[in-house]
Structure formats: structure tokens, C-alpha cells
């Protein structure tokens, strides 16, 4: 294996382009190193992107936030303005692993690893986050929801990487939340997860909502019916029932050691309901 | 395959080593630099026995490549005592019998030190969450938590 640590994005792309073997990006390494050790992955080259200064920053852009692909979870948690703007995305990212994992794990790594249970992805999809994909032909902006195509697979070409993830400018009376269920209180992988973003009017009626579920299908899914169930409501019990039903209906999980399919279907709905209530409370508090 | 030459800082002193690209920082510390304090409990980021601090951040040395250490500052359990004088956390671990086999201890000490540097007055819940990535098969954790809280109290008084 060959280790490269370029200091510019251009050099990283040139390295990827010139590599004829199996080449992997190394961000926090919290997935990649586990795969290297278990020999599930035997790349010829790893390209460490943490020495590229422009990928290592959280930058404001038109009121939104651009998060570089080398930025770790703990740095997102320490960024007060980002936490205020997108509390759900940050809380999802911060659920990943332990203190040690938080020092290293990145959101782009969580996305590119393409686990169906990746915690930050439902929150990013609900937030309409956009990944900036960079390759030999330049940059293109791709909705986060279109990056994972199946367990462990992404829509990136072999010579492309994600340079940053953009979270749009927050709106007034709008907020997000993420909840997952795990069998333990810490350090486990989601049985189900749900990210909710919603906006309220001055009277507290929901004017727009997006709901995404994770760990209950091969990829994270935006559940349009679930968002629609909230619009026009003040999150009354009927609306929350309809939201939960829509999320359960969208869930196509498998049985595994963490939970049965039937259980996951049910929990997806329960989490959606609770996350919506949290998001609505936060949205109300922004005024 | 040619080895990679890395210069770094280890517990405040300059250090250099040669390693292969596949080698983890944990392999390098233990096998090339003779620092066997950090332990390999799992090799997959789950147990925290390999905890070290890199540029001020607590990490699992098993999940970082040795080559990544170039130009960074690494702190391990070997840097905690000053000569014969144990760090308060080390003393309190002994006082509270917070270790049995001791495999988890270096990682827990490094992790607890990094918590107290950020939060000198943590409550029990904060300590438990911060240390959730450090597993101990022997003690049942309670003595560890008491030792950390007691060390924190002593360090606050001393400062
Ligand atoms: C103990 C432990 C607990 C964990 N708990 C959780 C959890 O609770 N929830 C959860 O979702 N995950 C969890 N994980 C998995 C992992 O920590 C996360 O998926 C993390 O976000 C991965 O980010 P990274 O930067 O470490 O990725 P890396 O390991 O560096 O990379 C992951 C993959 O994505 C590719 N990649 C990385 N960055 C880019 C990029 N910018 N462009 C293109 N490709 C890229 C890599 O080549 C690799 O294939 C856990 C892992 C461990 C070891
Ligand atoms: S050996 Fe590194 S976390 Fe277990
Ligand atoms: S003392 Fe044995 S693992 Fe903790």
C-alpha cells in the first residue's frame, strides 16, 4: 500500500486520476482503518485528505454552512453558530461512536461509507444538504440523497471525491432534529433513525417539512408522504399518526441481530413522531 | 515497498521512525518506539485501550496510520508521570483500586486526563459519557468513575 498526503485539492484529484489500482480516500479513517485491518479492503493507495487546508474548515456561505470533508464531528459540535443553525445535523453527527471516534470521524466519510445506518445521512437529507463532488472535470453539486446507491456503494466515479458538504441558510421558525434507536445507550449502530426538518408560520402551523429515515432500507430515504402529513397541521395527534404511518410504510428493513424487520418498521414511525415534536419545539424557539 | 520516514513529537520530545504504510500508530508506538503503554484490545475502535492524544484530541491509535503522525504532537500514558511523581489520576486509580488486570488502564488514564483538561469539574454523567469508548472487563466501572471524580476534586484544589 502507498500512502499519500497531498496538501491541495488539485493534487489529490491528480493522484486519484493517475492511479490505475484501487485507490481510497482517507478522512477520519474510522471506517477505512477497520476495513483495512479486517482485509475487507486492500487498496493500492490511500490518499489522506486531512492536510488539505481548504477541506479542513467550516465556512459561512450566503448564510449557510460549508463543512469541509476533513472536519471531524467534535469540531462541528464546538462550532456554536453551526449548532444553532442545524442542531439536528450536528446531533446526528455527534451520535457517532465515542469521544475518540468524534475526534476523527467526518460527515463526508459517514456519507461515502454508505452504510444504510449512517447516522448523519437522514439528518443531512432532511436538511437538503448538498455534496460538492470534485473530479478531473471540476466540481459538481449533488444532493446528499443521491450519493449512496446501496450498502457500501456510492454514485461517485472512481476518480472523484467529496470536497465539502453544504447546509443551506436556516430559515426563521424552522429547525431540524435527529433521533435513532440503539439497543445500548452509547456506542452502537442504529436499528432505525429519523431526521426531520420543518418550518412553522407565526401561528405555529407547519408550512413545510422533510422527513428521512435510516437503517430501514438499503439506503436512507426521504419520505415525502411523511413530510406532507405534517404540512397544514400544528402537529396534532392525527398529523403525528399519519407521519408515523408514512415512515413505517416507507421502511423496508431486514432482520438482523440488532432488531427484527417488524420492530424496525414500528420504531421508524415512533422516532419520526418524537423527532418532529423536537424540531417543532426548536423551530418555535427560533423566533 | 519503501518505508516511510516520519518525524513527530512524542510526549514533548522529538521522535522519528520508519514505518510501512499499513502500520497503525498503535503498531508504531508499541513495536518501533518502545512505548507499550497503549494496548491493543480490539484493533477496531471499540475498546479504547489504545487511546492517545494527537494534537490535543483523544483518538484511538489503532484507527490512525503511523504515517499520519508526521508533524503532529502525540501524548501517551508514558508522559503522564513526572519522573517518580505520579499524575493525580494515576494515584487515585491506585487509591480507589480502579484497576485489576490493567489492560484498560493506560487508555482510561489518557482519556480521563483529556476530559479534565477541558472540564475540570465534570459531573458523573459527563465522565461516563466521555469514557463510554473505554471498555473495562474487570472493574465494573464504578471505581474508575470515583477515581476520576476524586482526582478532579484534588486537581481543582491544587490549582
Ligand atoms: C467504534 C465505532 C463506532 C461507530 N459508531 C457509529 C455510529 O454510531 N453511527 C455511524 O453512522 N457510524 C459509526 N461508525 C462508523 C464511522 O465512524 C462513521 O461512518 C464515520 O463518519 C466515518 O468517517 P471517517 O471520516 O472516519 O471515514 P473514513 O474511514 O476515512 O472513510 C470512510 C469511507 O468513505 C470514503 N471517503 C471518506 N471521505 C471521503 C471523501 N471526502 N470523498 C470520497 N470518499 C470518501 C473512504 O475511502 C472510505 O471508503 C463507528 C465506527 C467505529 C470504529
Ligand atoms: S485497540 Fe484501539 S480501540 Fe480497541
Ligand atoms: S482492569 Fe482489566 S480491563 Fe479494566
Structure description:
With about 290 residues, chain A is of the alpha+beta class. Helices cover about 35% and strands about 25% of the residues of chain A. Chain A is built from 11 helices and 14 strands. In chain B, strand 3 and strand 4 (about 55-60) form a beta hairpin. Chain B is globular, with a radius of gyration of 16 Å. Chain B folds into 2 domains: about 5-80, Beta-grasp domain (Ubiquitin-like (UB roll)); about 90-160, [2Fe-2S]-binding domain (DNA polymerase, domain 1), CATH 1.10.150.120. Chain B is an alpha+beta fold. Chain B contains 5 helices and 5 strands; from the N terminus they run E-E-H-E-E-E-H-H-H-H. In chain B, helix 2 crosses helix 5 (about 140-160). Chains A and B meet through helix 2 and helix 6 of A and strand 4 and helix 3 of B.
Q: How are the secondary structure elements laid out?
A:
The complex is a heterodimer of chains A (287) and B (159).
Chain A: E1 2-4, H1 9-18, E2 23-26, H2 32-37, E3 45-48, E4 58-61, E5 64-68, H3 73-77, H4 80-85, H5 87-94, H6 99-102, H7 107-113, H8 120-126, E6 130-135, E7 138-143, E8 148-150, E9 153-154, E10 161-167, E11 174-181, E12 192-200, E13 206-214, E14 221-222, H9 224-230, H10 237-250, H11 261-285
Parallel strand pairs in A: 1-3, 2-3
Antiparallel strand pairs in A: 4-5, 5-10, 6-7, 6-10, 8-9, 11-12, 12-13, 13-14
Helix pairs in contact in A: 5-8, 9-10, 10-11
Chain B: E1 4-10, E2 13-19, H1 25-32, E3 51-54, E4 57-60, E5 73-75, H2 88-95, H3 105-118, H4 124-130, H5 142-158
Parallel strand pairs in B: 1-5
Antiparallel strand pairs in B: 1-2, 3-4, 3-5
Helix pairs in contact in B: 2-5
Bound molecules: flavin-adenine dinucleotide and FE2/S2 (inorganic) cluster (2 copies).
One FE2/S2 (inorganic) cluster (FES) binds at residues 40-43, 45-50, 60, 62 of chain B.
Amino acid at each position: 500500500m502507498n500512502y499519500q498526503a497531498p496538501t491541495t485539492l488539485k493534487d489529490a484529484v491528480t493522484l486519484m486520476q493517475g492511479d490505475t489500482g484501487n485507490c481510497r480516500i482517507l478522512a477520519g479513517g474510522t471506517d477505512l482503518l477497520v476495513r483495512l485491518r479486517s482485509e475487507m479492503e486492500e487498496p493500492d493507495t490511500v490518499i489522506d485528505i486531512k492536510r488539505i487546508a481548504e477541506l479542513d474548515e467550516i465556512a459561512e456561505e450566503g448564510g449557510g454552512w460549508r463543512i469541509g470533508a476533513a472536519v471531524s464531528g467534535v469540531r462541528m459540535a464546538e462550532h456554536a453558530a453551526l449548532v444553532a443553525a442545524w442542531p439536528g445535523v450536528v446531533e446526528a453527527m455527534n451520535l457517532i461512536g465515542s469521544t475518540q471516534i468524534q475526534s476523527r470521524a467526518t460527515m463526508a466519510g459517514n456519507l461515502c461509507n454508505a452504510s444504510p445506518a449512517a447516522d448523519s445521512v437522514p439528518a443531512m437529507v432532511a436538511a437538503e444538504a448538498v455534496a460538492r463532488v470534485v473530479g478531473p472535470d471540476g466540481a459538481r453539486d449533488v444532493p446528499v440523497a443521491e450519493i449512496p446507491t446501496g450498502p457500501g456503494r456510492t454514485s461517485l466515479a472512481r476518480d472523484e471525491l467529496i470536497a465539502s458538504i453544504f447546509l443551506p441558510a436556516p430559515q426563521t421558525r424552522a429547525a431540524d432534529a435527529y433521533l435513532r434507536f440503539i439497543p445500548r445507550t452509547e456506542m452502537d449502530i442504529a436499528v432505525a433513525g429519523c431526521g426531520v426538518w420543518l418550518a412553522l408560520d407565526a401561528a405555529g402551523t407547519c408550512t413545510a417539512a422533510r422527513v428521512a429515515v435510516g437503517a430501514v432500507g438499503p439506503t436512507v430515504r426521504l419520505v415525502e408522504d411523511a413530510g406532507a402529513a405534517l404540512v397544514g397541521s400544528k402537529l396534532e395527534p392525527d398529523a403525528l399518526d399519519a407521519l408515523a404511518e408514512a415512515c413505517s410504510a416507507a421502511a423496508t428493513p431486514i432482520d438482523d441481530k440488532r432488531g427484527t424487520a417488524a420492530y424496525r418498521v414500528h420504531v421508524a414511525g415512533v422516532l419520526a413522531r418524537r423527532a418532529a415534536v423536537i424540531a417543532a419545539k426548536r423551530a418555535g424557539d427560533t423566533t | 515497498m519503501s518505508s516511510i520516514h516520519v518525524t513527530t513529537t512524542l510526549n514533548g520530545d522529538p521522535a522519528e521512525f520508519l514505518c510501512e504504510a499499513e502500520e497503525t500508530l498503535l503498531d508504531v508506538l508499541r513495536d518501533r518506539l518502545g512505548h507499550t503503554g497503549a494496548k491493543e484490545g480490539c484493533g477496531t475502535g471499540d475498546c479504547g485501550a489504545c487511546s492517545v492524544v494527537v494534537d490535543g484530541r483523544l483518538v484511538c491509535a489503532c484507527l490512525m496510520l503511523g504515517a499520519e503522525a508526521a508533524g503532529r504532537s502525540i501524548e501517551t500514558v508514558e508522559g503522564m508521570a513526572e519522573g517518580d511523581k505520579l499524575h493525580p489520576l494515576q494515584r487515585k486509580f491506585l487509591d480507589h483500586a480502579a484497576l485489576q488486570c490493567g489492560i484498560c488502564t493506560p487508555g482510561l488514564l489518557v482519556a480521563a486526563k483529556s476530559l479534565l483538561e477541558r472540564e475540570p469539574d465534570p459531573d458523573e454523567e459527563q465522565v461516563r459519557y466521555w469514557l463510554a469508548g473505554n471498555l473495562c472487563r474487570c472493574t465494573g466501572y464504578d471505581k474508575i468513575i470515583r477515581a476520576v471524580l476524586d482526582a478532579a476534586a484534588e486537581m481543582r484544589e491544587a490549582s
